[in-house]
Amino acid sequence: MEFQGYKRADGSVGVRNHVLVVSASNCANELASMISNGVKGTLALTHNHECTRLQPDIERAMRTLVGMGGNPNVAAALVVGLGCDHLSASEIAEGIAESQKPVEVITIEKMGGFQGALEEGLKVARHMVSQVSQEQRQLCDLGQITLGVKCTGTDTMSALAGHRAVGRAYDVVIGSGGRAIFSETAELIGAEHIMAKRAANKEVAQRVYEVVGRMEKAIAAAGVDIRGSQPTRGNIQGGITTLEEKSLSAIVKTGTTPLMGVLEYAENPQGKGLFFMDGTAMTSQLFAGMVAVGAQILILSVGGGLPARFRNLTGYAGWLPVVPVIKVLSNPSDSQESEYFDIYAGSIVEGKESAEQVGDRLVKEILAIASGKPSQSEMHSAYQEPLELYATGPLL
User: What is the span of the domain harbouring residue 261?
Assistant: First the structure.
């Protein structure tokens, strides 16, 4: 199976051709936004990272920003900062440059003020857009795709419909030589033994237990019981009764192939196949980690209920415009909202289609969107807030 994508100098393939304006810190968000707003064809990557974080969070933020700038969907990047940013704009740019794409750096300090930095940024961004607009799509193999998935609005229909279709799509992409990633460490609790059995070797199995155990210890150290927040009120309204039940539902969307590796957040995977990434349940943070390791397309598998009635991605402070998101709807009770989803999977529980048939439709949609078809999220929502980067330590 093939699609029309953008071949990059480092051998990767993009499904979009963006010029990204990356802010080195929250203090530079205004500059990044003004440059992007002033140049059609650019996207601003603004975020909440500030200079009061501890080293582990600083390193994680650096990996995330470098990875997002190096994502195959990005054709060129402009990194902007104040000049005193804890995350050095130059270091971010150097990391992105390893992907062999054009990268420029502008700081307010070097340009002598905000206005000078803005004017130079507009100039550089216009030149980048002019250059990348000349790139053409070429025929590429499905095996060059990396997928990421997140579930939300989980109810009793999720594991019966949407998750099964996503699992089928994961198996097809991996079977074609591609890569697929899943996350949400808290949603492995109670099902970690099942994923460990699917591990490619003993080391990977051990890592599953280590990462889940680490999350459980962190929760216990906070003096709270996760079962007070998981399943959520929305999950309970949808018929989910326990955390373990939610976890068993969540792993359905991973398909049936062996688990090849367990990654730290925003850690690049080695090889192809299925990978688990340690991470939060917050949609924007989870997706950012996947984008940072090269996912060109993301899938949001929605059960139903109130989350299905958002025009935007549920639980998400805006969406990551770098990567198209394919939304899958499971519950027939919310079929009136299906026009805002890319794939309606409720037909499985209605007895009109099999999970394999819906999964194959999803694969066709992946190929179409990879070839340039806009996803429903791309068409229906321009809402975006600064990205809240994943952090586990305190603010100083």
Answer: 142-377
